[in-house]
Amino acid sequence: MALQGKNAQLSYDAKSNFGAKGWWVIIFSALNWAFYGGIVNSSMNTVVPQLAAQLGVESGNLLSLSTPAGLIALVVCLLAGLAVTKMGAKNVNGIALILGAVAVFAWANASSVGGYTVALICVVCLMKVVELVGGNTIITNWFPKKKGIAIGWATMGLNISSAFFVTILVALTGALGGIKYALWVVAACLIVLAVVNFVAFKNYPEEWGAYPDNNPNEKTGEKRTVRTGWTMGKVLKQKETWMMGLGNGFYGMVTIGFVSTFIPSMLMKGYTQPQALTMMTIASLLGLAGSYFCGFLDQKFGAQKASIIYGIWVVIGICFYFVPGTVGTWIYIIMLGLSIGGSNNYPPSMTAQIFGRDGSVVAWPIVYFIKGLLCASPYLILGQSQALTGTYNAAWIVFAVLTALAAVLFYFTDLNPKKDPIEE
Questions:
Q1: Concatenated DSSP letters for 357-400?
Q2: d(CA 39, CA 130)
Q3: pTM here?
Q4: Potential cystine with 129: which of 80, 100, 335, 403 (Cβ 3.0-4.6 Å)?
């Protein structure tokens, strides 16, 4: 396989003309992304140390529970994907938000390590479902051909939460007198979002008097259900499924490595804690522009070319990690900061491009599962690098090689739409 030309079945219109209802769906998706990222990723910096102190244990012991919780969540997401085919994205996402609120409340009130563990697993599993369905599936339902640019806008929610969620959580903790009460507020917000999900959202634009991609020529009727011949077994037999999962998993490893070690990496380079925090905020805000730009490249040039450009960009950025001095550090921060959104943009877009609007409902949880298995490994690589060398340098060399490998994988991946088995 080689670089693919334009395909008549796809859209290369990168204009953000989504219509009023389409924009609302993108904002709703961004909110799902924001709460997922804030609760599962960002909040750990604040919640874990404080709950560990209350339980009288080392924070590292509680933090380590996030890895098995994440692996269990991948299995739950496979089941959630099957549920979407039967119940629709709206119902699955709404139920996950409500149960997620209950889990966050239980997490806040955990009085033992066992209770904390059960609550954490529930929180991670349910918020991963919110990411899978509320962050991604609803976008490909509404924008089957303009998914690239739409996902680019929606994933900005993740970057916003990276920049501000911890600050808000700390402020709530101080104002209300404890992290427990701050998490109660987060749980209440999830309930509000669930109400919005059920009251002011539809599975498909056709159900709301709108058009797919906001294109009147795409309207197919008022009622719609998932109609596809793709099954889990058939999806797993496609080599593209594995190539997408592996390539995007490698990209995701870099993003996790960048975010999770940013502060200690800057401290190792001689920067102060306040300087490192400011740099992290800047990197997160750069991710807002990066999310849009990655989506724009996807829509304008196709997912294959966009993902290869992304890989080359990231490898160059990693190289500047090893350049001594302030200039090299800032180039690294800018390039990797801009790339944060891309690792979340391309997986659902590629999946929908290959398997179609309905087929991706089945295929996306599988690609997400493969990608997620790889994304559970950066912590091991980073930990070994620090233990053996005292720095993260060895880990970043590994990440650079894996990123280059991902770009090569995508060069040889056929991302052209496949014929749905139901049509055969």
A1: HHHHHHHHHHHHHHHHHHHTSHHHHHHHHHHHHSSSHHHHHHHH
A2: 11
A3: 0.91
A4: 80
pLDDT of 223 reads 62
Instruction: Give the closest residue to 32 by CA, choosing from 123, 122, 127, 140.
Output: 127
Largest CA distance in the chain: 62
Sign of CA dihedral 21, 22, 23, 26: positive
Q: Using alpha carbons, select from 238, 205, 358, 345 the residue that is nearest to residue 289.
A: 345
The two three-digit tokens of residue 190, written as one number? 């999830």
Is residue 107 a contact partner of residue 116, using CB atoms and an 8 Å limit? yes
DSSP letters for 271-327: --HHHHHHHHHHHHHHHHHHHHHHHHHHHHH-HHHHHHHHHHHHHHHHHGGGS-SHH
Quick check: 253 and 402 in contact, CB under 8 A?
A: yes
Residue of 33, 276, 286, 252 whose CA lies nearest to 161: 33
- 283 burial class (0-12, 13-18, 19+ CB within 10 angstroms)? buried
pLDDT at residue 66 in the model: 84
Range in 41-50, 86-95, 283-292, 302-311 the model is least confident about: 41-50
Task: Using the structure block, give the residue that is written with the tokens 């659902």.
Answer: 348
Q: What is the rounded CA–CA span in Å between residue 410 and residue 262?
A: 28
Report angle CA 251, 256, 257 to the nearest 5 degrees. Answer: 95
Instruction: Assess contact for 161 and 369: CB atoms under 8 A.
Output: no
Contact indicator for 151, 139 with CB cutoff of 8 Å: yes
Listed range (37-46, 306-315, 402-411) with the worst mean pLDDT: 37-46
Q: Write out pLDDT tens, residues 288-326.
A: 999 999 999 999 999 999 999 999 999 999 999 999 999
